[in-house]
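Escalated from tier 1: flavin-adenine dinucleotide holo job.
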Amino acid sequence: MTKSYDLIVIGGGTGGNGVARMAANAGWSVASIDSEPHGGTCALRGCDPKKMLIAVTEGVDWAENMKGKGLEAQPSVNWSDMIAFKRSFTDNMPPRIEAGLEKAGIDVLHGEARFTGPDTIELNGETLRATHFHIATDARPMTLNIPGEEYLATSTDFLELPERPDRIAFVGGGFIAMEFSHVAKRAGASEVTVLEMMDRPLGNFDPDLVAMLIEATEELGVDLRTKAKVAMIEKQSDEFVVTVEHPDGTETITCDLVVHGTGRVPNIDGLNLEAAGVEYARRGIKVSNAMRTTNPAIFAAGDCADSGLNLTPVSAAKGRVAGKNLLAGEDAREIKYPPIPSVVFTLPMVATVGLSEAAAREQGLKFDVHFEKTEGWYSSMRVGAKHTGFKVLVEQGSGQVLGAHLIGPGAEEQINLFAMAMGSGQTANQIKAMIFAYPSYASDIGSMV
Ligand SMILES: Cc1cc2nc3c(=O)[nH]c(=O)nc-3n(C[C@H](O)[C@H](O)[C@H](O)COP(=O)(O)OP(=O)(O)OC[C@H]3O[C@@H](n4cnc5c(N)ncnc54)[C@H](O)[C@@H]3O)c2cc1C
Ligand SMILES: NC(=O)c1ccc[n+]([C@@H]2O[C@H](COP(=O)([O-])OP(=O)(O)OC[C@H]3O[C@@H](n4cnc5c(N)ncnc54)[C@H](O)[C@@H]3O)[C@@H](O)[C@H]2O)c1
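Tier 2 regenerated the structure:
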């Protein structure tokens, strides 16, 4: 007999689990399906494990910056201990999450779900029926369509490496390549190369601050190449040869590992969305502002849905809206994105919120640009940080902060203060009037507006 539920959630990560819990708490019969142990990318293969590796390499960076300032030991990274440290978190997550879902009365199932009709899916050869579905299957590394693509390791593979390869090439110069190349180099890899096809890495971040990050990255010893398009990967015994096309010719790079960092696309290929009447395009499942798909009984959230930035807190926000509307039985709530901060967790970190300088100009806004390198400021000098600075855009007349762009220690928290100020409409003068604890990175922000 076909088992039926009020709701089946496909994807047991950030954008799915909250919805499953909300429905179960309301007394609905719910199944939560994941093809992997539950937890999702952020907790198991993304933000959280990555930042544990970065925490270890922060020690190396800190000692380097304080060299000659009274700190004498130079630490080194034990790769396998670092991966074990990461696993001390990631290994415990799926059992905890699955037990929590089961305690809430949710059926926790595993396998690749595939729609067979508007209200049915196939899972491990069996049919399951539901009145409602919620899809939150994340994104996957994009296909490059180049010879030797199968040799690319993913960020997930990188986070699981039992030993550190010595020569690592990253294809792409976005979030993953920049963050992971910094980890690899500080962990002792001798040759780390980043191959970005555009004329600069991190195209969505402020070019002046990215230029400072490039200096820091090159000082660290990462070989950062731009206008470098990867055309082919070959395996030769136990090493890889990467063919790179430049505007003025072709070169090859030999390495022990080639890592994918050219972007992620909606992970929806295997879902057979056509059978469910759920429309999608290149950027993902089409959703309304209520997170409802083109099949009114089916919702979607997270990176598989075409709405907002592909970041964990955004996925969670989309899930909350989907859950509210599912339970309400109508579109009672719409997603409204406040200014969304985003951080590249390199060392130094680069952080951004709001409009870029280029976007603000394109919109014809009148604004002052507060751009300064802050190597000489006390908060940089105290920790030996060299590549630090900010660019803050303040609208003329209204005094509203249009965008804030930061590089340096503390940027990951300062950017949240800017996001809060911008979200609540605080003006530059109101930010200046705040009293923050001193000395702290927060206490600098009044001098940035
Ligand atoms: C290396 C890396 C680092 C990142 N770092 C950050 C960061 O620092 N900060 C940040 O905000 N964001 C970061 N992100 C992005 C963030 O991880 C994602 O935006 C977020 O996890 C998306 O959540 P989601 O709900 O869409 O998917 P997830 O939480 O990943 O949940 C999707 C789940 O669906 C399952 N699934 C997929 N297909 C099927 C199927 N057919 N059937 C059943 N189950 C299926 C998957 O196994 C997965 O568990 C990072 C991403 C990566 C890859
Ligand atoms: N700190 C964070 O928030 C964080 C960290 C890691 C990942 N993520 C998430 O994961 C997603 C994927 O990260 P990513 O780094 O893979 O993608 P990305 O979109 O950040 O960067 C991809 C880069 O690859 C370049 N590129 C594309 N094709 C290329 C080619 N053939 N040769 C050379 N360069 C090429 C692009 O120009 C771009 O600069 C991000 O968009 C984000 O959603 C977030």
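The longest strand covers residues 126-135.
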